[in-house]
Amino acid sequence: MSSTLGFTTLDGDLMPVPAQAERWTADEAVTRLFASHYRQLVRLAALLLADRDLAEEVVQDAYVRLHQRWRTLREPDRALGYLRISVVNGARSALRRRAVARRYAAILVAFPDVPSAETSTLDAYEQTVVIAALRRLPARQREALVLRYYADLSEADIAEAMGISRGAVKSHAARGLAALRQMLESRS
């Protein structure tokens, strides 16, 4: 899928960007993008975060930022790429916040017999073997695999979303696949 402001039809085909896209208001553009790509972006974030509620927050924040910055976008037809980058970066930030919270959790008074809501949510996602193995991969490898095989992005789009070169995308994806294969084979 290209990183344009294209919109998906009911058949699943990507329609080209209308010539007047640059003249759309922020409300018009974001409404059309939301209708066409919200679910896809939430699924992407959910795979990176393993938390559907947090994924929805990350995606909603990305749409809000796009709306706020619509007038300053140099290339409005690349808004979908901007949203993907924003979602990936938002997921990274959320994962960092989660890691910090876990580090300092020992300081807080804990109730060991009562699992947190976050733990329950994570447990639900960990039920599938593939997702559990995917989550054990290093962040960059996981991102490369999710963007490639789940979001079905090209190497160029993945490189743009992750902020790395196409060669680095190939490297992260190859290492991630090898590690994932090894983890899944060791469970058999």
Automatic annotation (TrEMBL):
The keyword Transcription applies. Keywords: DNA-binding, Sigma factor, Transcription, Transcription regulation. Gene3D superfamilies: 1.10.1740.10, Winged helix-like DNA-binding domain superfamily/Winged helix DNA-binding domain (1.10.10.10). SUPFAM superfamilies: Sigma2 domain of RNA polymerase sigma factors, Sigma3 and sigma4 domains of RNA polymerase sigma factors. One of its GO terms (biological process) is DNA-templated transcription initiation. Residues 130-180 form the RNA polymerase sigma factor 70 region 4 type domain. Belongs to the sigma-70 factor family. ECF subfamily. PANTHER family: ECF RNA POLYMERASE SIGMA FACTOR SIGM, RNA POLYMERASE ECF-TYPE SIGMA FACTO. This is RNA polymerase subunit sigma-24. It comes from Rugosimonospora africana. The lineage of its organism: Bacteria, Bacillati, Actinomycetota, Actinomycetes, Micromonosporales.
